[in-house]
Amino acid sequence: MDGDAALLRQRIQRDLNALRDENRAMRTRALKRLVKLLPGGATPEDPEALAVVMHECLVETRLLTRLLGDEAEKCRELSAQVLLAFADDLSAELPPALARGARAALLGQVAEVARARIGSTPFAEPAEEVRLQLVKLVQALVCATSGEGAKDGDAMETTEDDAGDEGRRALEASAEDLCLACARALADNFPEVKRLCAELVVLLSQPAVLPSAVRKHQEPLVRALLLNLGHQHSKTRTVTLKALGAAVACGCDAAERLWTQTLEPVLAQKTLFDRSSNVRRQLYRTAASWLLLQLEPATAASLRFGKAEPALLAVVLAGCVDTHDQVAEDAERLMEKIGEAYEEGRRSGGGGGGGDDAMDTTAA
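The structure assignment produced for this chain is given below.
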C-alpha cells in the first residue's frame, strides 16, 4: 500500500472497524461516511488511494459482500452503493492486472449473493430498491469482467492469454448463479428490476459473455420473459422482446417445438396485436433476427425452426401491413433482408447469407 493509501486507511480505520460492529447503527454510520468519500460524494477522496484501500480492506476481505446480507436494510443498500462505485469507477484506478483480478473475484462473490438474495422464492431480499441495486451491481461486474459495454478509451487492457482467460474463467464459474438469479428476478413486481434483468439477459447472451450458459438455462429464462410480455408498461414489453430474441439466438436443439408450443401462442396470437407500435416493431425485428440467424452458416446448426419457419415468416410479413407507417416500412426492410439471405443461400448451395448487417434487426 503506497503512502497516500496508507494515510487514508489510517484516517478511516475507525469506520473500517465499525463495519464489523454488532451494533447496526454503528455499521450504518460507518457506511454513510464511506459513501461520502466516493467520487461525487460530499467529501471525495483521491480515487487511486481510495481504490487501493477499498480493494485491500473491503473487497479482498469480502466484508462488503457480507454486508449485502446484513439485517439492516440501510446497510445492505449502502454496501451495494459502495460496491457499485468500485465496480463502475474505482477499480479502474488500480494497476490493470490487479483491477482484473479484483473484478473477477468480486463477480464471483456478488453472483453468489445475488442467487441467495434474489434467486429464491420468495425473495430473501425484501426491499425492492436493494434488489434493484443488486441487479445493477451484477450488470456492472459482468460488463467490467467481459469487456462488454466498455466506454471509449476505457476498455480493459487485456491480452487473449491473460486477461481474457481470467475474465472468461470468472464468468464461467459464476454462470449458473447469474442465470438462475436473473430468471427468478425477472418475476420481480418492481418494473425497473424486470427491465434491468431483461437487459442483463441481452448482455449475458453476447458471444463474449455467456451464450452457452444462457442456452443451458434457456427454459426458465424464456418462461419468465414470456410472462413479462403481459406487463402494463410498453417499455417493459419492448425490452423483454429484445431479451427473448437474444436468449433464443443463443441456440436451441428443438427450436421448432419451442416456437409451436411456447413462443407462438404468445407472440403470434397476443403480442402481434399489441397496442404499442414500439412493441410490435420489436416483435418483427426479433422474429426476423431468428430467421436470419438460421440462414447464417456460422449459426444455422444451432437454430433451426424447421416446419415452424413459415409461421415465423408470417409474423414479419404481418408487419408489412402494420397500421403504423414507420413500423410497416421497417418490416418491409426486414423482409428484403430475409429475401436477400434466402437468395444468397440458394446461390451458395448452403443455408446462409444476408451479410454483416443481417444482425441489426434487434436494434432499438
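Interim note for the steering committee: The chain has 16 helices and no strands. Confidence is low (pLDDT under 50) at residues 151-161, 351-364.
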